[in-house]
Amino acid sequence: MLSINLSTKLIIALLVPFIGTSLGSAMVFLLRKQVKEKLLKLLLGFASGVMIAASVWSLLLPAMNSYENGDFRKWFVPALGFIIGIIFLFLLDILVPHMHVNKKEEGLNDKKISSTLKMLLAITIHNIPEGLAVGLVIASAINGQGTTEQAALILAIGIAIQNFPEGAIVSMPLKETGVTKLKAFWYGVLSGIVEPLAALIALLITSQISIILPYALSFAAGAMIYVVADELIPQANEGNKSSLATIGVSIGFVLMMILDVTLG
Predict the structure, then answer these.
(1) CA 204, CA 198: separation in Å to the nearest integer?
(2) Segment of 3-12, 142-151, 178-187 carrying the highest mean pLDDT
(3) Nearest partner of 263 among 174, 148, 126, judged by Cα
(4) 243-263 and 37-53 helices, crossing angle to 10°
(5) CA gap 74, 8 in Å, rounded
(6) pLDDT number for residue 168
(7) 6 alpha carbon, distance to own chain's centre
(8) Average pLDDT for residues 55-80, to the nearest whole number?
(9) Choice among 65-74, 141-150, 197-206, 211-220 with the minimum mean pLDDT
(10) Is residue 101 pLDDT above 60, yes or no?
């Protein structure tokens, strides 16, 4: 059983991703128009690269390192948890009505409330696995099970970096529907609250049942990869200039890999 004793670094790690989303949402006060398509493709690709790298170095590898070489659980547990994470997000994607965060529905102004809720639900779904990932890496650091406090903080910073454009992607389109800047900002902020909540839930559960931590780490990895494969990369590659998305993925992946390996 884990003993929860959060250091300053770990408390910051809990809050940093939410701060990233909030700062991105605040762009509604600074930018007059929505994010340009070329920049959006680059940012979506960058977010994808960060999440892929985080899934490997911050989640799957610590899950594998929980077991000795030769133990079948070294590959079985991460594989099982990863698949369950994919299935969970797949079912959530089907059961929860939502719209893609960078799409516009016809007649959006005529059904502003329903479209706003769908957009908010979409980004909330995306943020759940990210919050779980942060909470589980913190739990792994506390337990000394494959990662460190520094690694948890690096993961949180990486997610916060990709949450910044995500917050803007939520708040900016809402302003175009006639929602006030302040309300659009708060909708963006609300979409990010799920991350520290999911992190705390994951931390509390694994503190009571530490044996599930390797399963949970790989579950979060599967959930994050589902978001990347089902939402971010397809959206980033729509239309022209899809090469910008590929560049963004490469930059995000390499940056997160370097941060995790050198500082984690």
Answers:
(1) 10
(2) 178-187
(3) 148
(4) 40
(5) 32
(6) 82
(7) 22
(8) 92
(9) 141-150
(10) no
Tell me the one-letter amino acid at 96: V
Alpha-carbon Rg for the chain, nearest whole angstrom, is 18
Token pair 């931390």: residue:
203
Tokens of 134: 């942060």
Cα–Cα separations (whole angstroms), residue 152 to 27, 95, 145, 157, 226: 27, 31, 12, 9, 21
- Are 122 and 223 contacting, i.e. CB atoms less than 8 angstroms apart? no
What's the pLDDT tens digit per position in 5-17? 677 878 888 899 9
Q: Global pTM?
A: 0.81
Contact (CB, 8 A) for 188 and 28: yes
What the block records as the tokens of 95 is 């059961």
Tell which residue, 36, 35, 38, 34, has the closest CA to residue 239: 38
Which amino acid makes up residue 47? A
Which tokens belong to 262?
Answer: 């050198």
Q: Which residue, among 56, 104, 46, 54, has the nearest Cα to 244 in the 3D structure? A: 46
Phi, psi of 35 (to 5 degrees): -60, 135
CA distance 213 to 217: 6
CA angle 56, 58, 64 (to 5 degrees): 70
